[in-house]
Fold each of these.
Amino acid sequence: ADVDTVLGAVVRELGPGRATTIAGLASPRDGVEFSDLSVSEGEESLLFGTYSSLGTSWVVDDAVPTFLGVPDGQQRAARAALGRGEVVALVPAGSERSREIPDARLTVDLSDESGDQTQTTLTAPVHVVAIDATYTSASGIIPPSLLPRLKLTSKPAGVVVPPGISTEEQQAVTESVAAIDSGGYFYVERGYQQDDASRIIRWVLVL
């Protein structure tokens, strides 16, 4: 199912204004798919730690989406970098630090229907944002103005719902999405949740 159809199902269950479409990277050529975008400084590659259900590892946007978890103190610099046409790379603070890479090497991997791969490499500035987390929600943000240099385009990749969804709403959206596409799913990040057994054990210990 296409993203617009999924968005329609979410809106039907939650109402308008509670869902946002995410754009990701894509190849403009028929029969060719975008595979990966890597960032290097000299011979050293940036160490990304991405664990995400966004539908894309690179978000195409000229703003800093709140769901990416960019710290408040770093959002202004990230927005300014995007305004200059720079990539904003998101990395775990344990592996990298926030900094500017003025001449980073960007490598785009594409693959065709036969499995053959091609690469496009260019040099461009990258603004690195270190996030205090083991994993980031995406590898980073690509400003739309950079897409022609990357020889890429964008396409809808997923739908994000902001915090505040109930378990009943979650179940309703899950069923609607599954009815559209058996391979589709609706994931809600609620953080650590204790199970009943853990609560019972803790209560017994306290008593």
Note: The longest strand covers residues 117-131.
Amino acid sequence: SGVSMDSQNHCMLLDLLSSGSSTLGDIERTLKTDPLLRQLKRHTDGRLALHSICTSWLPDRKAKKDEIFTQKLLNDIDLLQRKIGIVVNQFFPACELVDRNGDLPVHLLARNLMKWETTWYERIYEQAAGDSGSSGEATQAITQLYHSMSKCIDIVLKPIVTQAHLCSEPGSIGELLPLHIASIFTLPISTLSEALETYPTATSEPCS
């Protein structure tokens, strides 16, 4: 469990992580300079650094007429995955912490990625529909995007799937159990089967 404490450096770190403006170097330097920051909980919402990176802002690319639209999306999700990996590796128990609203990091990340998907879904599928006679780059990009989102989710879900009390956490909005998340994001069979074995009741609880 995290230590509840606020400091200027701690608040700056959480704001930096959630803003999406942090670089990999920023995160690594900050956590190396003050290792305690990785396990400090913010008083107001009970969140750790991992919760903040899971809510990290992702750019909305749909409004710009950009020929490398899909590549920018892939770069965005790849960067987020690497940031999450850094923070998780600094303090694995953060994956298990429910914040004051009732959210695990995986709940926050799942909702963040589902919201982000709505910003590019329509445009990239339109591109894929027009790709039938060419190289199929948009279709390949769709596969890569969903695979990358799956990898992001797996980083924060895999560490908790053997714990029944965490697998029964529905999150703060509707009912979104870890098994639901694993299914939605087509996680590896190993993670999915562990979540199912740990909390089989989830199969009869509707996702909402």
Note: Residues 105-129 form the longest helix (25 residues).
Amino acid sequence: QVASANDVNVCVFIASPFAHTFVQPSRPPDFSFARATHVLDLKQPLHLQHAAREAVRKAQKANPSAHVAQTMAEAHAVWQLYADSMALLNIRPRPWPFYQRLFRQSPAQVRFVWCEINGQATSGMLLLHHSDVVDYHFVGNTPLGRAHQTNSWLCLHELQHAQSTGARWWHWGASPTPAVADFKRRFGGREATYTLRGYCTGDVSSWRL
């Protein structure tokens, strides 16, 4: 709304729920608003709620195995698990080209991971590692994965992996539905609010991508 009123076609948004990662710009923002998210301190012992522990135990009975994408095709297969899951919720998935560029440019920081039962993919997840923060971006499941609740097993697997790398924060992000928010709380995610600051930077009609 601010951009439209001022004939501005691009804005820079600066925000972080982690105070130590935020550098205050030299001028005040043109507009700002609060956002809600969920975060987890990885330096503290993991405390899963009863429902999460039971889901992990159920998945473990099926002996799942975890795999990390090494190729673009594997990364796309993980994204497809997410897109199919979003379709069931009538939610538009984030577009594949965005993640494709991330994976191509920063493969060491972009972690597409999935798990299998007897060679069949059941759940997939995308995490972005930067500084001491792990950003959770999405999870997706097949019908087999939902039946065995392997998304819970995969979440715990990746939380433990993040701790082993020395990461400090797990950023769950915002939740599209109350059920998703509840899932994050089951794994110890605490609600946090932070300010998103917007800076109008001008007209980009002459830019060429």
Note: Residues 37 and 174 are 5 Å apart (CA to CA).
Amino acid sequence: DSGPYVHALAVSHDGEFAVYGDEQGGIRCARLKDGQLILDFRAAGCAIRQMHFTPDNRRLVTLTYPDNRTYNHVRVWDARSGYLLQALLGAEALPTHSSIHPVSGELVVVGDQTKSFDLAQVEPQWSLPSSVNAPWVGFWGGDDALLYFDPRGVPCVSQLAASGGETILWRAGSQSHRPVASLSADRRFALVGSLAVPSECFLLQHDGP
């Protein structure tokens, strides 16, 4: 393979996945039993120094080479989707080594600032597929109803459950080109439309408290 050199390698604690990072900041994750590529994304603009799976195998911690003081070198990713969950230490830190406790999941980062982190609360409570081209979201009514655009640009309203689940309460019948939305100050009304012409608009009213 004439691709970038691999600088870091990690295997999930259940032995199911292997992930490696290259000199250009790319990360790939493969299923070991059949070699199927699960993730392929760029995590940084510089080489990956170290990677770790958390004990639950659901998150991935990356540490990049400390050659740029304007970059945040310690990041936590969702190991299933590749979404960034958290950036740690701040851009001014220059970490050189990291380690994760195999049971508690506590992360220790060594460098000019040596710190430890409890990663137990890093994972988000909800994870909803949303539009990259229309990154807009807002709480509608209370703190358990969310108005957002799905990956196709279709406006949706979802009810968020304390358990982490969600129920779609409303979805427009068609997708919008260049969708936009606005909430009233009391969050009882929402106007959803499109910057394209012609445009279909929706005026929604929240009947709850």
Note: The CA atoms of residues 94 and 112 lie 6 Å apart.
